[in-house]
Amino acid sequence: MFPVGRINSYRAAQAFCDYLNSRGITAQLEQQDEFVIIYVRSESHQTVAQQELNEFLRNPNHPKYQAASWNAGSTSTNHQTAQSWSGGGTAIKSFLARTGIATKVIALLAITVTLVTGFGTNSLVFWFTFHSEAILNGQLHRLISPIFLHFPVLGIPFLHLLFNLMWFWDLGGRLEKRFNASLLIYHTVVIGLISNISQYLVSSSNSIFGGLSGVVFGLLGYCWLRGEIDPRLGFKLNKNIVIFMMIWMALGFVGALGSIANAAHLVGFLTGLALAWLDVKVFKFR
């Protein structure tokens, strides 16, 4: 998909999207923070759609846009009526629609492994740890499996898992919806692999570590830098999110969050930055 621009009103964005579709230009919307990003499927339609957007912003109440929405069945009245009938179901569907299948599967794996291992407290945790001797003996899954382990933080069992899933759902879902499932899986594996190895190298031989947080910081770095060096993509993180996560990382390094995998966080973030730079500057991937 190719970005056209952004509008701060979902209803207005939907009206414009309906108009593009009525002209044979396949378009879709994606909510990002306070803005709605408009994409078109074909690069050949990108310039035309951007010109149409400029015209729409000058006169959004033109009858042609209302007619397109009416024909598409997405007027504000229809939208509100659907919400009033569906109630909480609409919110759940909207939440699930923010991600793709890869995001959901990875999140489900993290939940399953965490519960099966009793939040890292029972003997089953051994089968998912980074164990160098076992890896050399062919158990290669251990290179990546620690990302699915989660442990109590500050004495709260669910805190580690919920925090990581919340950010992975947002950042991973954003990547997958903008690009595809393959890119998210590739980035998750690369970031997870490098962050796990880094954490192992700075840990004692008998230490156990785990969590999606190294991947989360990697996706954060990727999304942030990608938006900065490729602004045409319409893929820009709110800077307050980045500041918050940097503060969270710093708290880990000063010990305010207990014993956590700080090396995985830092290296994961740096790996995400590197992947963003490579995708834009070297591979020209859009």
User: Based on the structure, what is the oligomeric state of the protein chains?
Assistant: single chain
| Unreliable spans | 75-86
Total helical segments: 12
Q: Ends: how far apart?
A: 8 Å
Number of domains: 2
* CATH fold-level label of the largest domain: Rhomboid-like fold
Under CATH, the homologous superfamily of the largest domain reads Rhomboid-like
Give the biggest sheet: 3 strands, antiparallel
GO molecular function: serine-type endopeptidase activity
Organism: Pleionea mediterranea
Transmembrane segments: 105-127, 147-169, 181-202, 208-225, 237-257
InterPro entries: GlpG_N_sf, Peptidase_S54_GlpG_N, Peptidase_S54_rhomboid_dom, Rhomboid-like_sf, Rhomboid_protease_GlpG, Rhomboid_protease_S54
